[in-house]
Amino acid sequence: MGGNVQLEDQSRKREMRLQKNREAARECRRKKKEYIKCLENRVAVLENQNKALIEELKSLKELYCQQKSD
């Protein structure tokens, strides 16, 4: 009889451990998605800044070339 109780206890502990593991995995996946989304937003911002800087550089080069030729 005592062996049966011990098996049930082990089974219950195993299920609790598996449930905690599933929850931890779910949370880990959620955090990873959030991190990736944050990185994607950062990439978009940096790409826009890069485009703006390229346009500014073009403009300054044109201005320099005009002044040089004057």
Describe, in plain words, how this protein is organized in 3D.
One of its GO terms (molecular function) is DNA-binding transcription factor activity, RNA polymerase II-specific. It is a single chain. This protein has 70 residues and is mostly helical. The chain is 97% helix and 0% strand. It is built from one helix and no strands. It has one helix at residues 2-69. The longest helix is centred in the middle third of the chain and has 68 residues, at 2-69. The radius of gyration is 30 Å and the shape is rod-shaped. The mean pLDDT is 94.
Topology:
Blueprint: H1 2-69
Strand % is under 5%
Give the termini separation.
103 Å
Helicity range of the residues?
A: over 70%
Sheet/helix structural class: mainly alpha
Net shape? rod-shaped
Number of helices: 1
Q: What is the strand tally? A: 0
Query: Which residues sit in consecutive blocks of at least 5 with pLDDT less than 50?
Result: none
Radius of gyration: 30 Å
Q: What pattern of helices and strands is seen along the backbone?
A: H
Please describe the biggest sheet, giving its number of strands, its sense, and whether it closes into a barrel. Answer: none
The average pLDDT score comes to: 94
